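From the pipeline queue, job 12 of 40. The input is one protein chain; the requested action is below.

Action: predict structure.
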Amino acid sequence: MPAKSPAPAERTGGPCRPYTPRNWCSRRPDGMTEAPSYTDIDTLADRLRDVPYESILRTIGRVAERKGIEAYAVGGMVRDVLLGRSTTDLDFVTVGPETGIALAEAVGEALGGRTAHVYPKFGTAAIRIPAADALPDDHPDDALVLEFVAARKESYRSDSRKPEVEAGTLEDDQYRRDFTVNAMAIHLTPDRFGALLDPFDGRRDLERQTIDTPLDPADTFEDDPLRMIRAARFATQLEFRVSDRVFDAMGTQAHRVEILSQERITEELHKMLEADTPSIGFKILEASGVLAHVMPEIQRLKGVDVVNGRDHKDNFYHTLEVLDNVAERTSDRPGAETRWLRWAALLHDIAKPKTKRFDPEDGWTFHGHEDVGARMIPDLFRKWRLPTDERLDYVQKLVRLHLRPIALADEKVTDSAVRRLLYEAGDDIDDLMTLVRSDVTSNNPDRRRRYQRAFDRVEEKMRAVEEKDRLRNFEPPVDGYEIMETLGIEEGVAVGIAKTWIREAILDGEIPNEHDAAYDHLMAIKDEALRRGALFEAMQDRLDGPENRALGAIKEVVFEDPDLPDDREAALDYLNAVKEEALADGPSTDEADP
């Protein structure tokens, strides 16, 4: 195992507080340099000399002038130049129908015959320039993307976020943009290169570190409710606040997000999660009432119950602190690279509302929330249009295992318990340890240090067991093919039983993780594995229609129950009783309550 990640620096000012427009939670340390003043800026020509794509901007300006096309750089690029942030997505607006596509094709030729990918339905075109041709050698992105579109104005119907579009002026195009910091433009023609056009005073909002809208925010969100989630996302990425009027409008328009496609919502959530301090956006969404419409399962984590003077921590704010801790512990990696670890942090306690109980002696408990939470993950991924592949498996695994390492800190823990965690976590053990370390959010610094020292001991045990037993990505040294060949059988339950028992013997330390020892163990257990496999097949033949629901329970007994009788008829009677009990119980709670 690699060395553990360093602990994050101590926060200043205590844990993050609930969001209000005037009390927003940022992790910027005290003494951070203030944002630069933009009061006297009317041109960005000097600043543009420092960006790697200045020569491309000047080429676009020259081509536009030659073609007689009025062209501007707009939006995020202008904002990021003012903030000194890197960007690789450059947006350009032209004035006149179809001029965006015409300029893109002419620029492609001027840049050495690069292809302009045209999207006639949307009136846009894009040019992709590989990083090697446009960006510094150490730049993390793989390409510079230039997108061209003709200026337009938009109007919306109340029941749709799809606008009716028609050609417009530059002012029309700026007028329709979401936020003032994204509504700035610069001239590209050679004689006015870099001149700033800022009709909504976006510079001021950059200086004030505030997200605001060019128009009345209530109208902005009525037209396009996705902008409420984008407001939270930009506030998160830039570590800005949202203005009072934007926050208020989000509260009155929160229900409008229900007309949005889940795919668009999830795209914004990904970007929030990948920011340096993801909690900012989730707090804005929760405080404004939007989160309850977008992710009610996360909203339900919020709140504290009190019985007999005993309460529990607010699991919503705890979850966000864990999420921020994960972001900080993985700050040396791009946010997109740790996206699914961050989803695991967001969901690690998702089942606490379902499992919350009050015990007069123990107080509030959440027993089994890790297992219930893991079973919730597939439905949540489907609901939120997240991938249902190995990424789902990864998140589900981390949620299920996130309490296991703390149990291993006990000095009396056996090697077999460590082996099992290494086997179950596999290559994701380091991410799991990042999550469990991040899960320590106590306000008591001594308690935090105790937990972190305990996890140090756990990782030492893991390293020792891993070095001795080689369990990373463990596969039994005798595989299914060798079992079938040795026993002269085809694939079936008997093979599964033999593989499972060999694996358990290795994990329990009964035999070493070596082929010869595993083969000898196979020969010792083969008769019982064959007997139990035959019993399962006999029971399977007896089941009909709905009775097949009992197969899982029968299989579990055949694999694990030490009390299965030796006599065949007695064993079949035993399994028949298992079947009757399983059928009497009906569908499991999880199956009945998706």
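Job complete. The CA atoms of residues 482 and 488 lie 10 Å apart.
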